Task: inverse folding
């Protein structure tokens, strides 16, 4: 498992459907060592902190394994690192394998905890020139995942990624996505998800509400 690229961008104004919109999605690769701070990368930022950023969405990782799929769908021969707005382009960790609460180490210092899947917004559709791609992106299961910073430090492209702790009784990011947005899962699976100690508050709220609707 490897970190292929570290990507960042400060928020900038773009025009979408004639309106000025602030966005931090246009991430580009950074050379050399990059400092991971408590709430994200040095030199990086999110525009709308109501849906991005914060403790449980400090960093966003996206697997390189999905790039070929989207190159085909977008009919392009290549996609640069950071295309999906990810801070970390990674290799060897997929949504079906990594679980909510897993503890990762990148390089010698940085430790990160897997928190939740990424839900795409209209800014991503605009960036790739396909505004109607959001539902397809969501249903593909190729969501990537957010991370909470447990230990700060420095990382750089080429660093090894290690799994320090893996919750074998937890739920995968793919399962978390299905429960959150795709109406997948039953009463028992929702109850199991709610037993995950490190389940982020947002998912705990969504899952509890779904469970209440089932009971009602």
Result:
């Amino acid at each position: 498992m490897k970190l292929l690229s570290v990507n960042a961008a400060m928020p900038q104004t773009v025009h979408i459907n004639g309106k000025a919109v602030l966005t931090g999605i246009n991430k580009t690769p950074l050379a050399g060592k990059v400092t991971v701070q408590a709430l994200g990368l040095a030199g990086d930022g999110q525009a709308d902190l109501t849906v991005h950023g914060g403790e449980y969405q400090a960093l966003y990782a996206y697997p390189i394994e999905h790039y070929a799929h989207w190159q085909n769908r977008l009919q392009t021969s290549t996609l640069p690192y950071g295309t999906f707005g990810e801070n970390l382009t990674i290799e060897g960790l997929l949504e079906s394998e990594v679980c909510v609460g897993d503890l990762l180490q990148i390089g010698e210092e940085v430790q990160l905890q897997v928190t939740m899947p990424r839900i795409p917004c209209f800014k991503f559709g605009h960036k790739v020139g396909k505004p109607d791609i959001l539902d397809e992106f969501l249903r593909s299961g190729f969501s990537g995942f957010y991370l909470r910073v447990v230990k700060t430090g420095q990382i750089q492209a080429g660093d090894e990624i290690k799994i320090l702790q893996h919750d074998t009784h937890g739920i995968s990011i793919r399962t978390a996505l299905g429960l959150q947005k795709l109406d997948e899962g039953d009463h028992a699976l929702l109850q199991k998800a709610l037993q995950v100690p490190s389940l982020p508050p947002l998912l705990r709220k969504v899952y509890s509400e779904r469970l209440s609707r089932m009971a009602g």
About this structure: The two ends are 44 Å apart (CA to CA). The first strand starts at residue 2 and ends at 8. Residues 137 and 184 are 16 Å apart (CA to CA). Residues 201-215 form the longest helix (15 residues).
